[in-house]
## 1
Amino acid sequence: MSRILVIGAAGLLGGRLMEGGKSKYEMYGTYKENKMKGSNLHHLDVTKREEVFSILERVKPDCVVDTAAITGVDYCETHPEEAWLVNVEGTKNVAEACKRAGAKMIFLSTDYVFDGKKLDYHEKDKPRPLNYYAKTKLIAEHVLEALDVNYIVARTAVLYGVGGLGKTTFVSWVIENLRKKENINVVTDQHNNPTYADNLVEILFALYRKDANGVFHVTGLDCMSRYEFAKRIAEVFDFDDEYIHPTTTPQLNQIAQRPEKVFMSTNKVERITGIKPTGVKEGLERLKKQLEMIE
Ligand SMILES: NC(=O)c1ccc[n+]([C@@H]2O[C@H](COP(=O)([O-])OP(=O)(O)OC[C@H]3O[C@@H](n4cnc5c(N)ncnc54)[C@H](OP(=O)(O)O)[C@@H]3O)[C@@H](O)[C@H]2O)c1
């Protein structure tokens, strides 16, 4: 049975990886601020190089899934040193430790590495990040390539799912507000492929089992605006959609620039794993069932 170490196990994706992997793999996890208890769970700050090496020496994983990151896009813009330290230096520490330990590394990157000027994006397309968060992710991708570690880079987008220790995702924000019958303004001019976290987990493990290497686009199937996505959420969760109002990016005054439309092609990952990524309707329906079981 392979041993898998998830860095950032308390996060949205990290939590789903721990859950999704436990029937097939020996799962280990790390946390930083959000303390987790259990014999397979360890504290780790990826910016501390010796800590990273020491964890890998203790756990001896076959594969490390590095989900740790400063993920706030606007926060990264205003805290560039911190973003660099975690997203670039932290990733480098993990990659070097993986190389030393002979472990495979799966790293999570973002669709924001692209500027949104093209119709659809394949893995070979040239990235051009518009914000600092995406720049740090792209530089981290280059670090992995340069180190020649055995890696998978999975570029994903707009994650939704259960867990994440209270972290607000776009989906949880929409659900919260519509449940309280609060008005929300949602942009019509930012398009991405919303990605159901459990489906991302299934595909990441499938790529691992295929011993795939290199860069992969691993997102949901459908590309849509946040406004359309909010409407779908209302439909699946049976909320009144009259509280969802269209707005545009210039009206929002977001700190970091976002690409207008990044449509990620998932052909490569489908070809290699044989798995067709989940579309928005199916992803939201699966999420709804999970939430009903928890509530
Ligand atoms: N969410 C999205 O829509 C999206 C889109 C594209 C790409 N991604 C990428 O996918 C990955 C997972 O995203 P997510 O939404 O699951 O992230 P998340 O919920 O914000 O979790 C990130 C985790 O990183 C850990 N972390 C932060 N700084 C750390 C440090 N210095 N050392 C060790 N751990 C640290 C945190 O641990 P503690 O909680 O214990 O402090 C946190 O649980 C990230 O790499 C993100 O950039 C996400």
## 2
Amino acid sequence: MTNHIEERLKRVEDKLVETGLDGFIVSGQRNVYYLTGFWGTEATVFIGRNRRLFLTDARYTLIAKQSITADFDIIETRAALEEIAKLLGGSDIKTIGFDEQVTYADYQHLLRVFAEYDLKAQSLFLEDLRMIKDASEIAAIRKACQISDKAFIDVLDFIKPGQTTEMAVNHFLDARMRHYGAECASFEFIVASGYRSAMPHGVASDKVIQSGETLTLDFGCYYDHYVSDMTRTVHVGHVTDEEHRIYETVLAANQALIEAAKAGVTYRQFDQIPRQVIKDAGFGDYFTHGIGHGIGLDIHEYPYFGTSDETIKPNMVLTDEPGIYIPDKYGVRIEDDLLITEDGCEVLTLAPKELIVIK
Ligand SMILES: [Mn+2]
């Protein structure tokens, strides 16, 4: 972990030089964790070309001292920005970057405290680095995916048509993943049965799962602060011919992307390749969302896909989640997490994808 953090800090310091900044103020719990190993809700970090400051209040000082192994000055304060400005006073640090996503109130605060400095808003300064995962990040995501895989196998026996509610399935998945070592759920699960499965983001309700329905489960967990994000759609009781055809189409789209995904594929192609499979089968109008997103410390992080000619890179971890949603009837989505390599990809979510019918 220490070496990984030192490498990340080195990349930030290189980026400071590239962008003409003398330093950068890090905001956001996950960005702070990424660069320090400290996990807590109150922390401000300043990375200068040869100055690293970590500021937190008394509740977190001990945790900071235990968890931060890279070379940082750890400072206890309840006025972090004022303290940074004071510590940098008289140094040759003049141009300071900050994340353009900060709130308006935080921006006003920065302007007040750093009135004597040249403040420069930065877009995706750390998010760009976070897109490429290192070995410790990949290990955590891999484990989170394995935990989700096991919970999926277990939930198949838990669901009793005509008795089990979506909410009970939600709670079961959550408890099962914790049982296998997860820290917690990585987002509010989607457990959508029957007509509700036509809603791509139908979170669990009190509805009882009935025979004859499809059931979409989109869930995941945190392991060592990194997420998994997986979707499987199962059928309950029996399957109609149309449901079968739609399932096989979504699976073919998911599989087409697994076969095509590798370093060098453009964001446009990444979205287009599976989408074309669904269009060719005549369901193009029913695939209404993007193909996927990056995962890591956040459940949704860069990159996102669409019309860009940027290319995917080795060690990105991306979701592959085509779906078909027939309004008021049902929907099917299948989602895997893919680790991109030079010449292909590794599927990290290995739960079965053949058509499953729960009796
Ligand atoms: Mn997803």
